[in-house]
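Hey, I'm writing a tutorial for new members on how sequence and structure tokens pair up, and I'd like a real worked example in the thread rather than a made-up one. If someone can provide the structure for the chain below, I'll link this post from the tutorial.
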Amino acid sequence: MDRTQLPCPPCSQGEWDFCRNGRYTERGIKERDGFGSQRWRIEPEYAVRLDPRLGDRGVLLEPASVLAKAWEQTDRIFGRASWRPRVALVTGAGPIGLFAALLAVQRGLRTHVLDLSDRGQKVGHPVP
């Protein structure tokens, strides 16, 4: 692929986080100022929609949106497959990894969490 092509195919479909030529920008991550909630709001097409029934209790957490995106992409891939996974392996038992494991369990997958850390509070606390 021509790395100078603008926009690349994913960017032209609004999927800039899958950019193939590296010519995207992202707030606080690549070539754009970080988040300043008092001066900036997210473009609606990049926000994760919450169920309106949650009302003021609905809180958008960035790790949750990252995991939602990962599951969305997983669903797209398996939507074209003739089989469905039964087991999930989550690498990392930090807050994001444990949340990912929770979402895998909610999807009915037998879930395993692997963490390389052998110190701290995570030792000896298996995920059911």
